[in-house]
Amino acid sequence: MSDQEAPLVNGVEHMTCEALPFVDDDYGGVIVEMKTPMDPKSFVAALKYSFAQWRLQGKKGVWLNLPISHVNLVEPAVKEGFRYHHAEPTYLMLVYWIPEAESTIPLNASHRVCVGAVVLNHNKEILVVQEKYGTLRGTGVWKIPTGVVDEGEDIFAAAIREVKEETGIDTEFLEILAFCQTHESFFAKSDLFFVCLLRPTSFDIQKQDLEIEAAQWMRFEDSACQPITHKNDFFKAIHRICSMKMEKSYTGFSTKPITTFIDDKLGYLYWNKQEEMNNSIS
Amino acid sequence: MSDQEAPLVNGVEHMTCEALPFVDDDYGGVIVEMKTPMDPKSFVAALKYSFAQWRLQGKKGVWLNLPISHVNLVEPAVKEGFRYHHAEPTYLMLVYWIPEAESTIPLNASHRVCVGAVVLNHNKEILVVQEKYGTLRGTGVWKIPTGVVDEGEDIFAAAIREVKEETGIDTEFLEILAFCQTHESFFAKSDLFFVCLLRPTSFDIQKQDLEIEAAQWMRFEDSACQPITHKNDFFKAIHRICSMKMEKSYTGFSTKPITTFIDDKLGYLYWNKQEEMNNSIS
Questions:
Q1: Which CB contacts under 8 angstroms, 24+ apart, belong to B14-19?
Q2: Quick one: pLDDT band at residue A183, thresholds 50, 70, 90?
Q3: What are the Nudix hydrolase domain coordinates in residue numbering (chains A, B) (predicted)?
């Protein structure tokens, strides 16, 4: 496009009077995903033209997905009234709410989800590791394998994956024993930490070198006797729950695949199935 | 600053050789929070100067918090090698990993957390609403109050808040009966939906007009007889769990305030306390 001004039609440049590419979302809004490079001037013209159409069509929310390669369009978009919604390393999602009525734009993700894996074998031993990084680095503390649940990953699957990655041990998921919610884990975001009970199906440890200093099967009693277990509420509670579980006097939440009430989406229900004698929902 | 080029010292403009304001984080990195307006040219010069210092000091991650009013600095930051980390309506957080070693930058929040509130009174009635918006709008379906857990909000507190907001009913939290995880709830993010059992401490409904079409106490049996309960796995499971609970043959997870293993942070543990006879951890 030349630097010369193009003729204006209702304040919109005539030469670029093409709408931005978009698809409808399920909530009366549109999603614009920028894929080909565009200069800011053409982008703003196309945006204005598109908005005129969307307003006529009664559209509500306008989502604008800008890959990081389109960073040149962030400033013009914000100047046209877009606000940030969320971002991932490779893209920034902006949003604009058209109607006068209050916005029903969904909130951004607020929680990181982590798992800790309690893996107990038939010899009353627990699978523990020492980490190369993190707050317990160099303390000599033996801890259960832990990790972050990926976007789109099931909690039970993340527990199985982390154990395999850190120790090479194969496992089956049994129950969520308990979970913990904390806040301001990083910036304003909150954490949910799920303690999962797993049954090992292999026993030879192949530790991962990148993050793990050492890994072993440790007598459960010895693991419970570490000073940190007594000093810290959380470790104490988890060891007490494991003890009860080993005495078969504790029930956590099991999984059940389910279709949820929104759009018949597939998911997993975590619930206490122990007392469900007649098996009517499982 | 004039448009004329300032003299260069090691490629950095001499006139702007001041470091950006920053604070250290707890993991060997720094956090830059831009508060005063800055033009892109001065910003890039200050950034280069700061990076030279941070490299000498062995700093790892560099967090750059750009309020939306500083949108003019997003493109220069990305061109200097920053990547997006997360965004909220009012700011964009970018990050740069300095070391050769693999990045230990924490992942972004991946889950939205929602609650549904089962409020049962002594007459075997359940508190239900009809919504003005959402997928069940206009269907005549009576459902439990639901809502999104805010960043920094406890799950049990969110359930109490949502019931109060939608129906005016005061409640006490008893248990999490079950929860459900689903994926791709909006874009690539996942959802966790916690079903909470609450005891009402007031009974006169004052429905909220903005989102709620109608609210009432409904015989639990009638609520369970709605066609949607039979058609949908999730509603069916929740009603079955509530039935068991009313027959005192189901235990969910109760709360226990706790200090967690990271930084002695305060949080809540959710666990099955029923079988904890000797009360040793509660």
A1: B15/B45, B16/B41, B16/B42, B16/B45, B16/B46, B16/B49, B17/B45, B17/B46, B17/B49, B18/B46, B18/B49, B19/B46, B19/B49, B19/B50, B19/B53
A2: very high
A3: 110-240
Q: Flag whether pLDDT at B85 surpasses 90.
A: yes
Spatial distance between the Cα atoms of B249 and B91, rounded to a whole number of angstroms = 49
Contact A75 B74 (CB under 8 A): yes
Q: Which of B32, B96, B142, B151 to mutate to test the interface with A (most CBs of A within 10 A)?
A: B151
User: Cβ neighbours of residue A260 under 8 Å, at least 6 residues apart?
Assistant: A266, A267, B180, B182, B193, B232, B233, B234
Q: Domain A8-97: give its CATH superfamily.
A: Gcn5-related N-acetyltransferase (GNAT) (3.40.630.30)
The domain locations on chain B are: 8-97, 111-250
pLDDT of A11 > 60? The answer is no
Best CA proximity match to B281, nearest among A179, A242, A240:
A240
Give A-chain residues touching B74 at CB under 8 angstroms: 71, 74-75
pLDDT on residue A263: 67
Min Cα separation B270/chain A (Å)? 5
- Residue B97 vs residues A56, B62, B64, B80, B104: alpha-carbon distances, Å: 46, 6, 11, 12, 9
Interface test with A, best of B85, B187, B210, B268 (most A CBs within 10 A): B187
Q: Hey, which residues does B87 pair with through a beta bridge? A: B92
Single-letter residue type at A122:
H
pLDDT higher than threshold 90 for residue B120: yes
pLDDT at B275 over 80: no
Q: Which helix (H) or strand (E) holds A159?
A: helix A155-167
Please give the share of chain B, as a percent, with pLDDT higher than 70.
90
For residue B229, the model assigns a pLDDT of: 83
